[in-house]
Specification:
167 residues, mainly alpha, 0% strand
Length: 167
């Protein structure tokens, strides 16, 4: 089953604009520390310069893709006052980070479906995808340890696929 990894910004707390840091350069026109909202972020999580962001030097905003991790993390923390409680905000940002890693690996394993590999490897890939989906779609905050375990298994699997990439 092919997954879609499209972000849904309307269902997100603009975590790319709050949780992440960026440095002034060719992609961003100002420095921003992690955990600090971009100064162009409105209260409703919309971007006040969205229509002009490229002209103002924010190409990185358009280039970034959370692969749907933002709306998943936001759903977990819906109803919690993360804006006023730094402890909740830290947990939200950690959840977003974990979900980003899970989504990136899910995308890599989905891409591997196109490889010409034996059925046993495709079955293992499918099992790993199921484990990742359970963690990413489960709506639970406490997936860090399990995510690290499954991601380690996925990385080992991808290393075993390396010889198939040169064929």
């Amino acid at each position: 089953m092919k997954q879609t990894f499209k972000p849904n910004c309307q269902k997100c707390f603009a975590l790319c604009c709050t949780a992440l840091s960026f440095e002034r350069g060719t992609q961003f026109a100002h420095d921003k520390s992690a955990g600090v909202p971009c100064h162009y972020l409105a209260e409703d999580f919309s971007c006040t310069i969205h229509a002009r962001r490229e002209d103002l030097g924010y190409d990185g905003c358009e280039a970034f893709d959370c692969l749907g991790a933002g709306q998943r993390a936001s759903a977990i923390f819906a109803g919690q006052n993360w804006r006023r409680d730094p402890a909740i905000a830290r947990r939200l940002y950690a959840s977003f980070s974990n979900l980003m890693r899970l989504q990136e690996m899910r995308q890599a394993l989905e891409t591997a479906a196109d490889l010409d590999i034996e059925a046993a490897l495709h079955d293992e890939r499918s099992s790993l995808l199921e484990a990742l989906a359970e963690l990413a779609e489960g709506g639970r905050e406490d997936v860090g340890e399990a995510a690290s375990q499954v991601l380690g298994e996925c990385k080992a699997f991808l290393r075993r696929l390396a010889p198939h990439l040169t064929q």
